[in-house]
Amino acid sequence: MEERMVKFYAKESSKLALHAVPGHFSTSHSHINYYIDVTTMKTRVNEAKEVAKVLASKTYDATAYVDTIVCMDGTEVIGGFLAEQYQQMHVLSINQHQTIYVVSPEVNSNNQMIFRDNMKHTIRGKHVVLLLDTTTTGETIRRSMECIRYYGGTVQAVASIFSTVTEVEGNKIVSIFDGEDVPNYQAYSQNTCPYCAKGEKLEAMVNGYGYSKL
Fold this sequence. Notes:
alpha/beta; 6-stranded mixed beta sheet; single chain
């Protein structure tokens, strides 16, 4: 896989490169013809800071208030820098200490997203920015927004490093990279996957934390 990896640079910053591997892969919701790797943007401090800078500028108009950033799929490093960017941009917060919470939901054994009692106050009545790494079907966004609403939060903006989805339930998805940045990127349901129809085996299972070869 690794020898087929190619780079695509962000329009807003030459410091940010998305890595993509062509092939036949399975996510929890779909089959895809590229594995999108944003690991370095989530784990290298300089890149995470640059991601935060770009996403803050792209979500600024939708974020009159930001109280909490909910981080999915290991985006907490970016979330911390994003909170810092909002504060530097003087985005308002209703939090008593005038600072922003950066949190992640727990996923229980039934695959439900939950916030424990000691974390509920970071969501209840708060203006929330939802942060993800890659978005192909929007299903994780739907589940995340449902969780945030359940605990009493209001989603102000949804930001993803890479997304082929532009809107979910009326919420615009802001991203640095999209499907046009990766030539012929496609996502299919298992029943409509042309690779499966031709009998081509899956190469790996992939999610926001990485990949496992099959």
